[in-house]
Amino acid sequence: MAKHVFVTGGVTSSLGKGITSASLGRLLEARGLRVTLQKLDPYINVDPGTMNPFEHGEVFVTDDGGETDLDLGHYERFTGVRLSRDSNVTTGSVYQSVIRKERRGDYLGATVQVIPHITNEIKGRIRKVGKEDIDVVITEVGGTVGDIESLPYLEAIRQLRKELPSQDSCFIHVTLVPYLATSEELKTKPTQHSVAELRSHGIMPDVMVVRSSRPLDDAARRKISLFCDVEPDAVINLVDIPNIYAVPLELNEAGLDAVVCRKLDLETDPPDLADWEAMVLRMDEAKDEVTIGLVGKYVDLPDAYLSVVESLKHAAAANGAAVTIRWIPAEEVDGLLAESHLEGLDGILVPGGFGIRGIEGKIEAIRHAREHDVPFLGLCLGLQCAVIEFGRSVLGHSNANSTEFDPTTPDPVIDLMEDQNDVEDMGGTMRLGIYPAKLTPGTLTERLYGESVVYERHRHRWEINNRYRSELEEGGLVFAGISPDDRLVEIIELPDHPFFIGSQFHPEFKSRPDNPHPLFDGFIAAALKRRRSTSTEETVASSEAVTAGS
Ligand code: GLN
Predict the structure, then answer these.
(1) How far is the CA of 463 from the centre of ligand 1 (A)?
(2) Distance CA 6, CA 337 (A)
(3) I want to staple 499 with a disulfide (CB 3.0 to 4.6 A). Which of 90, 199, 375, 407 is the partner?
């Protein structure tokens, strides 16, 4: 039977519970254990699919088409695990199934209540992911202890602790110890209060993970151990570090996995972290630099593009470089400002998105990339904009568009498929999750993947309109990936360009720090090549200027 680790958070939100959970997952895997992870989200939305990325950040898509919290992206990137929709529980989805059962009469006329019906449903979801082949389930409780919304989750995990043998559960509480500059002190009081709050719900932490901007001294550590009633070595201090991928190494050094294994009575060899260490070193010691322009709608909240940003970092590290992202608000890539935004970029990336705002700026940025040989990667909406741009500039259909943005366009190069009708329920009406694409022999895409069929994750409604396929091809666009039944174009590329690729799917969901996605890898390699050639040109130009002046 699987053992369970529960991760709660206190003091403030955004303390990195997700990264802590993901890092523990990595460490337990490195000890040879089979792990899975899960996030319990307190909000009442059924899934984050319909939530504004400005508020919630990116929607992470799983193989089975689950639209999930972005922490699942961290879980997958840090571990070897492939998660499913079951790994994201929301209050909305819990209530939805309890109400469905009530309507079906499953509760035999009982009064349906938070305890036991909602808590039973939550416990059922937690147990469900602990299948036979899993040694440890790591469950992160979203929100902060004390939030009204998290109460049923805390109650459910409290009950589970009682139901499980004592060596089968471990409670980790993540808090912040702030540093007061005026008195030059680290303050443990908020942590003590947060544990008192946790205890008032019947939960005693076994391990404290304490975030701080500078190392905890012995006195602070002893205080936390005493007041929070955990062993001194179970006070794990995580000092702020710039590279999230170094967190597993820090936590291992601080003894987290050892303490968790002791509590769970798991005997394993020490973790083998050599490859991970080498990868972090590669990231930290990257010599080259590359600047990528990310042209999007939600550039004020970089979390909206979290997996894209991480994928760029993975690919840059694999190419011995560090990536600088220039966040370009799409609405501003128009007219006078366009040049200043796009100048000096080594590559241009147009990510996914919904709605008309900023579309013309994205199209303008793509035209710039196409005409000036700047490496371009278009993801989902990025591919669609590239096809619109191609339809307008190359095929001469000046009003080409997607029916998402102009329902009456004379040239709907991007359109809904015939079998898609208007629907009222906006949840789950998209092409979601993994679909195969066969790659066209001889294309750059095929060379990058080194495979003939690939499986990638989708989240969109619109597609390239098949009525324009032959015209696009005759104009010089290459379909580098097509669905096996030939109905859907999945990847486009332009030959005679250093790198111009668009995918209808989201490759960013499958990139890993130790295994970057081939499309990102190729994109960054092309961007680096451009950077090197432009800097050589500059050097030649400046030495010529010197010669001319001397
Ligand atoms: N809005 C476009 C569609 O629904 C693109 C979606 C996306 O980029 N994920 O097809």
Answers:
(1) 9
(2) 49
(3) 375
Q: What average pLDDT does range 324-330 have in this prediction?
A: 94
Please pick, among 155, 404, 463, 508, the residue that the annotation labels catalytic.
Answer: 508
Secondary structure of 475-521 in HEC code, one letter for each residue:
CCCEEEEECCCCCCEEEEECCCCCCEEEECCCHHHHCECCECCHHHH
Least confident of 52-61, 157-166, 392-401: 52-61
Question: For residue 429, how far is its CA from the centre of ligand 1 (angstroms)?
Answer: 12
Q: 381 CB under 6 A from ligand 1?
A: yes
CA 335 to chain centre: 33
Does the beta carbon of 462 sit less than 6 angstroms from any atom of ligand 1? yes
Pull the structure tokens for residue 322: 């560090």
Please confirm, yes or no, whether 506 is among the known catalytic residues. yes
pLDDT, tens only, 344-358: 999 999 999 999 999
Give the Å distance between the CA of 108 and the centre of ligand 1: 44
Identity of the residue numbered 338: A
The torsion angles phi and psi of 171, rounded to 5 degrees, stand at -110, 120
* Residue among 380, 385, 389, 456 flagged as catalytic: 380
pLDDT of 34 above 60: yes
Tokens encoding 450: 């080194």
- For residue 498, what are its two tokens? 């250093």
How many Å apart are CA 494 and CA 501, to the nearest integer?
A: 7
Spatial distance between the Cα atoms of 9 and 176, rounded to a whole number of angstroms: 9
* Ligand 1 neighbourhood includes 523 CB (under 6 angstroms): no
Residue nearest to atom 5 of ligand 1 (CA): 381
Is 314 an active-site residue?
Answer: no
Tell me the one-letter amino acid at 237.
Answer: N
Distance of CA 463 to the CA centre of its chain: 24
Does the Cβ of 461 fall within 6 Å of ligand 1?
yes
* pLDDT tens, position by position, 439-484: 999 999 999 999 999 999 999 999 999 999 999 999 999 999 999 9
**Strand segments (E) across 343-462:** 347-350, 376-379, 401-402, 412-415, 431-439, 453-460
